[in-house]
Structures are given as C-alpha cells and as structure tokens.
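The records we work with from here on pair a chain with its fold. The integers have meaning only within a learned vocabulary of local backbone shapes. A complete example follows; check for yourself that the lines match position by position.

:::
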Amino acid sequence: MHGNHTRLAQHDHTITQRDTPLVTGTANDENGEGSMTRGTAPTRGVLRSRNRLIGVLAISCAALALSACSDGSSDKGGAKPSTSATPTKSVTPSTSSDPNEPTKKEVLAVYNHFRQEQARAYAMGTVDGTKVQRYATAEAFGTVKVDLMSLKKAGNVGKGAPVTHAGVEDVTVNLAAKIPKAKIKDCLDVSNWTVVNRKTGKALPSPKGQLKRYVNDVSLEKWGKQWLVLTDTAQSRAC
C-alpha cells in the first residue's frame, strides 16, 4: 500500500490533521506475510504507494506509501475489509493574506480524497468501485495498481487508513507554469493502516524498524479544471 507508502480509507471523508507518511508491503514468507512501507517511485510508497500500506503488505519497500523503510534510503507507489475513514482536520476561519490560499485548499482536498480512495482500494483489493483515478494519474496511479497486484498475489488486503497532517502551510503552488503545479510535504501516520490475510483476517507483522510516521512528498498538476496527484513519495525520515 505508498510504493513504499500506497493507500486505504472511506470515500469523501477528508483526511488532514497537522502533524503525519504510505505503504509498501514486503513478501516475507510462504504464507505471504509482509508489511506495508512506503518509499519513492512505483516501488516507493511506504505501503510503497508506496505512498504504499502501513507496516504489513506484500509489496517491496519501494512499492507502497504507507510506511517508510528505516535503512536511510527512500522507497519508490475471508477477512472483511475495513474502510474506516481517517480523522478530519478541524477548519478555522482564515486570516491569511496569501492570495493562493483558496488554491492550496483545493489541492489539499484532492490529496485527501486520493488518500481515502487509496485506502478503499487496498481494503477492497481493487480500484474498481473507487475513485482513485479521479484524483491520481501517472506514477501515483500506477503505484496503487502495482501495490494491489502484490496484495492480491499474497492473498492480503489493507485494513484501516492513513492519517495526513498536511495543512495549507505545507502546500506550495506554481500557477504561472504552463501546467499549474503544486507540491505537498506531509507527515503521514500509518499506525492504523495494516495488512491482513484476506482469508484469516490475521494482521501481518510490521517490518523491523518500520516508521509509523514519516515525511511524504506529493506532487500534483492541474489538468483542465482538475488537480491530479502525479507522484506520492515516502521518505525514510520520521516526523
């Protein structure tokens, strides 16, 4: 689940809380046990995509964005699935003079929806029936699909959801570019995003040294009227 960081949550429930990284699963044994850790690139996502599930996924340390590896290097994206949504960050009246604040809030909303739909996809074992592709494309979407294939092959699914801690102050935008761009530096918390065996419902153990909260870098572009997540990269740094 994010490449080393990759994805799990309920649709249309904003996930932001100031302070939190995704998932990559690692296939550990013949029983398909592994954990979610996130990194960089299609195999990044600390559920590796990452940006890949939390602690226990059957994806390598570079496939999910749920949890980050602790080796100091970045990762490259019968049980009843859980799709519980992550807490919503409280909104207070803004007194900011930043003219780009409305755009930054729009970018954050897309990012939060992506995380929710990613978590849902990991819990269901498929992007079908989710809106992942409405909020992500390119590498980010590809990482989610790679993570899902890894989960399916190992007979696992995701459970729970990641919690984001990115706020408006963590977003930068470049609206002067031919294609408007945005970047988010998040602190992703994947403590409650785990990988379980689909048949038994047994949670897979987290890899030794796995980060539960890590720095996660996200890039977006505005295509037409819609912002889309392009990359979702978990860093091997706690936050």
Notes: Residues 3-85 have pLDDT under 50 and may be disordered. The longest strand covers residues 226-238. Residues 114 and 238 are 22 Å apart (CA to CA). Residues 101-124 form the longest helix (24 residues).
